[in-house]
Amino acid sequence: AGILNFCANNYLGLSSHPEVIRAAAEALEKFGAGLIFSAVPSIHKDLEEKIARFHQREDAILYASCFDANAGIFEVLLTPEDAVLSDELNHASIIDGIRLCKANKYRYKHMDMQDLEAKLQDAQKHRLRLVATDGAFSMDGDIAPLREICQLAQKYDALVFIDECHATGFLGPNGRGSDELLGVMDKVTIINSTLGKALGGAAGGYTTGPKPLIDLLRQRSRPYLFSNSLPPAVVGCASKALDLLMESNAIAQSMAAKTQRFRSKMTAAGFTISGKDHPICPVMLGDARLAAVMAEDMLKRGIYVIGFSYPVVPKGKARIRVQISAVHSDEDIDRCVEAFTEVGRKHGALP
Ligand code: PLP
Questions:
Q1: N or C: which terminus of the chain carries fewer CB neighbours within 10 A?
Q2: Whose CA is nearest to atom 6 of ligand 1?
Q3: Domain 249-347 has CATH 3.90.1150.10
Q4: Among this protein's residues, is 166 annotated catalytic?
């Protein structure tokens, strides 16, 4: 009671939106709790079409999670004659998906365009090149330099894949994601994302992109073929969340303003916040113990945040990761900054 949650992936507050909950209940009532193996009713097809429309792509395919979408794509798309170039800080599920394919693997330094270019040059000897990156990186709150990545991809004839789990629904003027934010919606070839974060659901993921690729995934992607489809309630929920986002960009816009408020007030208070323009705001502290005791003291002041340290982040880069949500009021954000300032002074993180 009275505790403010500043560590949820429910970026837009849609998981408790009355219309989203009603849509889930209606789908449950109409289609039942689960589905028999591989039986896909019309609501699944409708959601796939809606996802494609939302991202302005040709088609989409649903998975039980984005982990599955990432596990299922690379093996289908890439052969031993091809190459995949992956940011070293990509999410574990991209790394695992890449491990499953037989393409030649290149790992470029985090968001380092010189290194990517050098690796693209080396990869010219292969048949097809795919650059794979998180659109937004969840540990650092930084956004991939997609404009530069797409320019390099054009120069070296490569495809671009982005994982938009921490971007779909709220980055960009209409919440379409990091490709909209950076003006490259027509240059990114493939998007994988989740229904389980900003879209408010508890599960679900998808791939959206060119129709021939989606058709191929339906025939060959193992997590799609050999696992259950999404429960109807989850489909109902995501479908309503997308309707709300396509009706108005007000929620996405309020998110950007709140993010800005927190980042600028914390910086003025003397803290270092990693990343830029993203509601993931890592308060950089360095020392693992300091991050842990400060998070504990924040909870005593009614603010729930989590400290991250090695091995989740590199040694010496411990932090408290704050996540701003559209449901936080300006007063909530100010209360969080005040608590950080008090706790930071008490533990010597601030002078
Ligand atoms: N990709 C990224 C960047 C993530 O942060 C996550 C979730 O933590 C996933 C993929 C997996 O998403 P899901 O929970 O839908 O499996």
A1: N
A2: 165
A3: yes
A4: yes
Residue 68 CA, closest ligand 1 atom number: 16
Q: Which ligand 1 atom is at minimum distance from the Cα of 195? A: 15
For CATH 3.40.640.10, the residue range(s) in the chain are 16-247
Q: Which residue has the tokens 């395919």?
A: 61
Supply the pTM of this predicted model. 0.95
282 SS3 class: strand
Establish whether 138 is a catalytic residue.
yes
The two structure tokens encoding residue 162 = 């982005």
* In the block, residue with structure tokens 């927190």: 262
Query: Over the stretch 282-295, which tens digit does the pLDDT of each residue have?
Result: 999 999 999 999 99
Nearest to 44 by CA among 242, 207, 229, 168: 229
Report yes or no: 163 and 135 within 8 Å, Cβ to Cβ. Answer: yes
Is 67 near ligand 1, meaning CB less than 6 Å away? yes
The bridge status of strand 158-163 relative to strand 129-134 is parallel
Give tens-digit pLDDT for 4-52: 999 999 999 999 999 999 999 999 998 888 875 444 568 999 999 999 9
Is 244's pLDDT higher than 50?
Answer: yes
Strand partners, 49: none
pLDDT in tens, 61-118: 999 999 999 999 999 999 999 999 999 999 999 999 999 999 999 999 999 999 999 9
Q: In the chain, where does the domain assigned CATH 3.90.1150.10 lie?
A: 249-347
Ligand 1 pocket, residue 163 CB under 6 Å: yes
Best CATH choice for the domain 16-247 from the list 3.90.1640.10, 3.40.640.10, 3.30.590.20, 3.30.390.30: 3.40.640.10
Count Cβ atoms below 10 Å from residue 61 Cβ, excluding itself. Answer: 24
Q: Determine whether the shortest distance from the Cβ of 65 to ligand 1 is under 6 A.
A: yes
Residue with tokens 């400060």: 294
Give catalytic status of residue 17 as yes or no: no
